[in-house]
Amino acid sequence: MGKITSNPERSRLALSVGAAVVALTIGLGGCATTRSIDPDSQVHYDASYDFSDKDLIVNHLSESLVNFVDGSNARPVIISYGIGNQTSEHINTSGISDDIRLALVQSGKYQLINEAQRANIDEESGFQKTGTVPESQRIAQGRQLGVDYILGGTLRSIVKNQPRQIRLTKKKLVHYSLNLELTDTETGAIAWADKVEIARESSRPIIGW
Amino acid sequence: MSRRLSVWLIVLLPITLTACSTSALYQARSQFYSGDSSAALTTLADSGVVSSSDRLLYLLEKGLILHESGDFEGSVRELLAAVDYLDKYDYVSLGDEGKTLLANDWAKRYTGEYSERLWVHSYLMMNFLALGKYDSAAVEARRALERIDMHGGALEKDHFTRSLIGLSFEAAGQLNDAYIEYRKLAKQLPDGSSLDGMLYRFASRLGFESDAREYKNQLRAAGQFVALQSDGTEYEAIVFVSNGFIPRKYSDSLLTDYDVRLSFPRYYFAPSTPPAVDALINGESCKCVSVTSDLGHLVSASLAQRAAKLTAKAVARVVVKNAVAEAVEDKDEIAGGLVRLLFYALEEADTRSWLSLPRHLSMVRVPIASNDTKVTIAMKGSGEVQVMPLIGDSKKEGRSQSPRLLFYRLRQSGKL
After folding, report:
1. Residue-by-residue pLDDT tens, chain A, 209 positions
2. CA angle at residue B130 from B124 to B132, to 5 degrees?
3. How far from each other are the two terminal CA atoms of chain A, in whole angstroms?
4. Hey, is the C-beta of A87 within 8 angstroms of any chain B C-beta?
């Protein structure tokens, strides 16, 4: 290798390269931004479950369930015991059951029991019996609705990873399915059932910085 | 840039790339080993006490110490962050690999042995079972199965985790999945027939008539079927026993020339007998199902799985270092000699590992006929009898499992 000597041309070149690196770093660094997005739009960053999936599931199942009754007879009374999570992700399925419950209430075709408030109702009822509330204003006993149907279901997923081989990206396929059922409390028969399926593939680079 | 300056930059670069394990981790582990978990947690209170390359170790050590302290929610928070970290950095980092070629593997982010990546899920399962979040325990069970599927090998022999996977499915009411895992476990265990009674119950409950008949015949042949029929088990105590501490990694070297060496991480550890656990109900010994994993052997086998990769990398590092030293020697012989010396000194294997783990993890299933939740565990040979603290109860969580599941935990200290 030749002797290293001071050279004005080389110094200018080094300076230009240095300036270009600094400019590129600033350019790539970018700025933090925040923007609002349409909640109905489909946004997926990876293959995992997200709010777009929740909306798709809720819209399909609540529409199907609302159309199950014609609304001409008495409104059936339903209690929801939640949706089981049998996926590989920590998904809060109460978000799905709460939104379906909301759609059913808003349809006016069903009456929904608020199971989560039962303990509070009992507590309030007990308090009113302590004598602090006039008898005429106390909660009447034995007036709660009897349940006609139980709403329940399960969210499942099947994950398939691309086998190990020479490649630059890793692919992952996730298939979600949510089965929802309405069980007749008198007969134990399933009165209505439907399901939604979502399949998605994502890929990630194997090599990065 | 002057010739001397460029030479010294080359000399100093590997030093700046070299990192060592954060002292806060050493301190917290020492405090934990001496039984002072709260001091260990105080040391680890702020995540800023560790370098970014040791972030995973910080989360793992803190998560386990919180688990041992009974703070299961806190442990879940740290260990789920560890799972996210592993997912986020699940790629080959060119920056990290470049640094390790000039210095050593300490310069890169620690991403855990395959077995350690599995045990994150094992501890999450135990946490969720104690918290009564059985669906979440089952989520971790599925993630653990994905991990076993991904890395296979040594992880297939982790009987404790396999048993925990089955238990998590069982607690979540996913009996078919639980049955599949218990059957796999029975095939892996040296004495798989110890699970026959449990498998018979599952097969009968799931309506698998031919399987039930098979287990019934095996139980009859062993003279245990009559006892099983008259068994009025209403409760089942599940005891998680951890014992001792996992071995440490050491840096081992191979000299290829007087000034060139290759370093490899290695485990040296003495054989250790798993704890003989004897459960007592009202002072009487019971015939319980007990499953144990030796984490020392598993982590060592897990490291051996990576041996080819580690060797290839160590050889590549020697080639790169030699080329750099020769280039410097061409310019300045003394500086070149210094670079060689420095590279020789820096050739140290990465010995980082999750050190708060126990040496053995056992699960003991104790059937209880009466409403006596005062279960004691005696360690055979030590004469030590301890009343277990109850950490979870399926009935309190509104579950109607039969038998009702009660969860207990015991940590035995051990020599390092």
Report:
1. 334 444 556 556 555 655 565 565 555 555 667 777 776 777 777 777 777 888 889 999 999 999 998 877 789 999 999 899 999 999 989 999 999 999 999 999 999 999 889 899 999 999 999 989 999 999 998 999 999 999 999 999 988 887 777 777 888 888 999 999 999 999 999 999 999 999 988 888 888 77
2. 100
3. 32
4. yes
Q: What topology does CATH give the domain A47-130+143-205?
A: Rossmann fold (3.40.50)
The DSSP 8-state label assigned to residue A185 in this structure reads T
Interface test with A, best of B114, B135, B399 (most A CBs within 10 A): B135
B379 lies within 8 A of chain A by CB = no
Residue A76: which residues within 8 A CB-CB, separation 6 or more?
Answer: A69, A109, A110, A111, A148, A149
Q: For residue B135, what are its two tokens? A: 């669906």
Domain limits, chain A: 47-130+143-205
Q: Is this prediction's pTM over 0.90?
A: no
Among the partner-chain residues A4, A88, A161, the one whose CB lies closest to the CB of B139 is A88
Measured at the alpha carbon of residue B156, what is the angle toward residues B152 and B160, in degrees to the nearest 5?
Answer: 140
Instruction: Measure in Å the smallest separation between the Cα of B90 and chain A Cα atoms.
Output: 8
What is the CATH number that goes with domain B3-189+232-412?
Answer: 1.25.40.10
A&B contacts, CB < 8 Å? 48
Cβ-based burial of A205 (10 A; exposed 0-12, middle 13-18, buried ≥19)? exposed
